[in-house]
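Write out this protein's structure.
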Amino acid sequence: MAELLESTMLICFGLSWPMNLAKNIKARSARNMSIQFILLIITGYIAGITAKIYSHRFNYVLVVYLLNLVVVSANVIVYFINLRYDRQTQTANAELSRKISGHAENRVNAPAEASAENAHTSEPFQPSMHEQGDDEMQTYRELNSITEAGGVVLFGSNTFASLPIGELSQAFRITEPIYNRSVKDIRIDQIERYLKVCLYDLNPRKIFVNMGDVDIRDENVDVENFISKYEWLLYMIHTKTQASIYIVPIVSKSPAAFKINQRLKALAAQTGCKYIDISGVFESKRPTLRLFELMKVHMRNHPINFADAMEVGTLSNRVIEDVPNDGQPSAAPGLKKEVVYAKH
């Protein structure tokens, strides 16, 4: 009876490992795995099995030890597989950076080259038929092949496109996979051709939408038409994905943005989406950090805890004397009092 109870206890403890194995296989990343911890558990099981064999106690407990050892050992294999996925992701990100740099250089050089060519010919310069966002779409298609389903996706225009998601996720210790699929300079009436690559193919768990920062550049923007197209966007996301939708309002103090944001708040309530209040961004010394802080509490799988609550505002509201202005060189060491940064 004692052996049966001990076996039951080991089975209960051991069930966490198959669950952990399934989670790690799905994650396709070794970021949240600890090979040292796995090897420690394996060592413990081997010691227990050796003790049973040495004492000639061949019973149910030994069988459970062996089963648990097999499952835990499988985590080692998954760790190295996920490690390979991480390397592929890093390579893809490096390639993305290279392509973005190359495209930027080409855009700068193209006008000058065209002008020089036109100076020697009588033919007028013919602009390229290369459509807006094609470069991003090609890159996103390549990245989608190595992304993890069930992640968090940011979809928007310039505001989201400018967010350095990698650095922000690391600084705020966000372990959930976050993918930025924003396209610069797109308007609400141009988004249909981007939805499949940027949203549907990723099968995300949460989607953060931020549109309108380009639309409000037009002083005569049609608010009713904008809201109608926004509602269509939310409907398409609802029908094509199982994701929770978070509406991030337009980050602007303009009258048009205020009017649209009021309508977006009501639209969120009508469509079952969540509206994120960003009013604190405008008073922050570091608006980019503050915007991400307001979104990050909705990105986590687990609810906000005490540590998360204590760190809110610490990065985006540092004392201005302790932080150089944006675009200015950092102060030389020793010239200012010691700066205490948020611990993450």
